[in-house]
Amino acid sequence: MLDDDERTVLEETERALARDDPSLARRMRRPGARRARAARHRSVVVLVTVALVVGLFWLALPGQALLVVMVGVGALVGLGWRPRLDRITTALRPERREP
């Protein structure tokens, strides 16, 4: 634990940083808010993409559906989504058996 003097110095430092960079102070107060907002945006992109693809397949337009999927994946990448290839390669890697 911090003693009273250290806590006072820390609080003064936090106030000075908040004065110098208000956007940093906002991000530090709500660290999960940005991540939650990005997750909502990605969910909306996925739902809209799926709805459009289903509708285009229903209208017998698979070429346009493929285009919508590519645009949807591009939008997801633009929103910060990255595929986790380490999980895929681990799943595809054969297990090593020791004799």
Automatic annotation (TrEMBL):
InterPro entries: DUF3040
Record's keyword terms, sorted: Membrane, Transmembrane, Transmembrane helix
Membrane-traversing stretches: 39-59, 65-81
Pfam families xref list: DUF3040 (PF11239)
Protein name, UniProt field: DUF3040 domain-containing protein
Organism name: Actinomycetospora chibensis
